[in-house]
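Entry type: protein chain
Record version: 2
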Amino acid sequence: MRCKICLVAVAAALFTFSVAVCFGAETEDAPSVFFPETQYEFSPVLENATVVHDFVIKNKGNAPLNVDRVKTG
């Protein structure tokens, strides 16, 4: 009987830990990305003209934020 109770207690603890991890129990030292602007619409330009726009990426977390890949749309 005690073995079953221990097994249930261990299973409940593992379930609680996995739910906390899945639903974002973040540590204090984690990066947190924030984009003040997610898209930009250029006004009409002449053919072969170069257009430039800078997007700001903010890290609101406490750990370094690494940007590994960027895609244009």
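Comment: The longest helix spans residues 2-22.
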